Amino acid sequence: MLLQKSARSGQLLSPKTYSAVMERQYAVSDELELAPVDGSVDPDQVQHRFSGVLRLACFFGMILVLFFLMNAMITSGLRRTKTSAFGSWNQVMEGKVNADIVVVGSSRASVQYDPRTIEAVTGHSAYNLGINGTQTDMQVAFFKAYLEHNRKPHTVLFNLDAFAFVTSHEVFNPAQYMPYLYDRALYDALRKINPEIWKSRYLPLYGYVVEDMNYTWVHGIEAFFGHSPAEDYFLGFNPRYRSWSSDFERYQAANPKKVSFDIEPAGVADVEDLIQVCKKNGIDLIFIYSPEYKQMQMMTSNRAEIFDHFRKFTEQYNIPMWDYSDWPHDSDTSFFYNSQHLNATGAAAFSLDVADRLRQYLTAQ
Prior knowledge:
elongated; 365 residues; alpha/beta
């Protein structure tokens, strides 16, 4: 076996050990050659690392820009929609309504008051501001938004519900508000219900992708390219061409001991808020309890207490209340599609009744 002598120790090394020692020395020499003598950083290495970070930042920046562009496209499409629910909202938010008479309320307002009939009978322009799935707090917020963008009406018809004093505990169909979060009245009301609503306002696509379960963003993109849905809203009125179903029978079976609706202090304050808004603006306010199926009335255990609260307001503020609890057709299922809502046939009959009474009321004023 050939042996090599170590230059440092003078000891004899085997060829294998000698080779390993020499490789380590060469590696150290290479590192010394790469490192500048004065300890400074190699500009080429810095440029290479900076270039990698810059490319990564550009990549994420492009994604963020795409998110903002998509969000703007969806919002723009929904705002330019001319038909259906968003078409009705856009008329309001663009200040194109300016009606003499407006209806405020929940889905029971939206599907039961036909402004076309009210206009024809009274000779005054009318519009329906009813919103599906809302409590009084969001109904009042939408009315405030209406006043910000339109001439104030001379008369408001406020549709009363058994749940009028129940506040919103979640935002129903949040996507319907997404294009209009710039409006202070709507945004403030939504933020009270859901403090996280700021994400939908400031984070691109959050409101359409995370909060929306109805794929509203698809409609927004379609509308951006000129496709609007079929018209099913007429001056805010959304008639329902449906027949009575077996839902109420199942509801009765599930609630054999009747049902009750909370009277929350905050809900009472919401009704008071609407009264004060009308009073401040010199708007004539009328309470209307629209028809509901007779057996549903009998199922509501605290109905008398709820109506006592309505009457306290009417007496305190001298507000007319038109109670249709004894409407002639309230036991006829051919006029309803469920216990709380009239179908198109029932809405036509009820709208005519309200319009005729309103005509007499306005004439006497």
